[in-house]
Amino acid sequence: MSVAALVTPPGECPQCWEHAHNKRIHRRLKPREDCKPCVDHMVNGCPYLVPKKKSSWW
């Protein structure tokens, strides 16, 4: 079993990252039951200001 990164990488939405890499979040759902925060996220987009990747120019 792989362990999810503890810190959300730059440029990634924290909720998207956590829901994609933490299986415990969706474990309580019944078969074919949708996760309400995920559905809301897909319909309305990311509610977070996603940090941009650090520039490597410097």
Structure description:
This protein has a domain at 14-44. 36% of the residues lie in helices and 0% in strands. The protein has three helices and no strands. The chain has helices spanning 14-21, 24-27, 36-44. The relative contact order is 0.22. The model has no long low-confidence stretch (mean pLDDT 79). It comes from Streptomyces canus. This is PRL2-8.
SSE layout:
Layout: H1 14-21, H2 24-27, H3 36-44
Query: Helix segment count?
Result: 3
First and last CA, distance = 37 Å
Radius of gyration: 14 Å
Order of helices and strands: HHH
Principal-axis shape: elongated
Main sheet characteristics: none
What's the pLDDT, averaged over the residues? Answer: 79
Residue runs with pLDDT of under 50 for 5 or more positions = none
What percentage of the residues does DSSP assign to strands (E)? under 5%
**Helix- and strand-based class?**
mainly alpha
Helix content: 25-40%
- Strand count: 0
Protein name: PRL2-8
Organism: Streptomyces canus
